[in-house]
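Exercise: predict the fold of this chain.
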Amino acid sequence: GENYVEAKKIIRKSRNSNIKIAVNYIRQYQHDIIGIIKKLKKNELKEINVRYNRGLINNCSHFINLLSSIFGKVKSIKLLFEKKIKEAKLYNANFILYFKKIKANFFFVKNKKNNIGEISFISKNQKLTFRSGFNKVIIENIKTKSKKIIFTNMYKYQFHVYDSIYKSVSKNK
């Protein structure tokens, strides 16, 4: 669906027909990425910063889904800036999502050449930044400014999605 009304119809039809829905938000199935974030979550996260460039629907929605799968439902939203690009029918906005114990700042970055997707988790001692394809994580010590790079298994994302679908269908979730 392309809007809330269409999505509600799809959900209602799937429930009435006992059909499961899987959405193309692959990052919530990446075990190593989720594990890194959960460890950080225990480390008293202070805030989250997200940068995106292809509209709220195209790539920002993936970050919203990832954060919701980790931190639960969004409690409130504060809109800072909004712009509609007519030719692309994309909405871009700077905004803040408030979850139960953390806030996430979303920033639209104008860049036509590259697909920018970056999310930083900031705690008292560390800053973890996932860039674009989420295939690497940059870990920065805030006090010493030292950096370390960890490579994720994002290249196996299809396996993790299929595995999760299989477990859901076979009732082994």
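Check your answer against the key: The first strand starts at residue 45 and ends at 52.
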